[in-house]
Amino acid sequence: MFNLIRRDVILQKRMLLTYIPFILFFIFMDKHPALIFLVVSIFIPFNTYFYDEKAETNILLNSLPYTRKEIIASRYLGAIIYMGLSVAITSIALFVFNKPFTVTDLAIGSGLFLLFAAVTFPLFYIFKSRHISSVVMISFLILAAVGPHIVSFLAKHLTTITDFIARLSIPALYTGAAVIIVIFYAASWGVTTVIYQRKAF
Q: What is the C-alpha separation between 111 and 11, in angstroms, rounded?
């Protein structure tokens, strides 16, 4: 399974040359640190899906001595590993360029990435259309643009929920959010595994 995760980096070694400039661009544009953590975490996992979709790599993967469960596990575990590396590199870049950020920024960016991945990963195996990658990225850009406004709207109109959240302590809030994200990610992993096992290539 480790070789499947490492394969993603090997296939994208040329794309990775643009990775640091990509991070620096967002830093120099003075974007919010949480947004930077989110965007850079998406880079490798989603590029892998786009590459596999174009090259029809799944046909090759299923001819290798890996089970379908292992192939999906490498996707989900790989996404977590690449997120960790992305967060580390971005943190160093922000520190070098004296751009302040907090652990909260890191947690929000990472949590949003895991939620976005949990929603979109199954889509790559549900839909056969070659345009799914474009749909996913457009959806992400729209979500990034209107997401804060939606949250603000809901916070104003769902006062019962916002009051309950406001009464929670910071540790309880972080713990609850982490548990929800882990459950959602695990559920997505299970759903994608079932879909992939039934899919014909």
A: 26
What six digits make up the tokens of 134? Answer: 């474009």
Spatial separation of the C-alpha atoms in residues 124 and 199, rounded to whole Å: 11
Residues 6+ apart with CB under 8 A from 177: 107, 111
Closest CA to 105 of 41, 24, 191: 41
Alpha-carbon Rg for the chain in angstroms: 18
Model confidence pLDDT, tens digit, residues 102-149: 888 888 889 889 988 898 888 888 876 556 666 666 666 666 666 556
Eight-state DSSP code of residue 18: G
- DSSP readout, 52-108? HHHHTHHHHHTTSS--HHHHHHHHHHHHHHHHHHHHHHHHHHHHHTT----HHHHHH
| Angle at the Cα of 185 from the Cα atoms of 17 and 32, rounded to 5 degrees | 50
Query: What interhelical angle do 159-167 and 132-157 show, nearest 10?
Result: 80
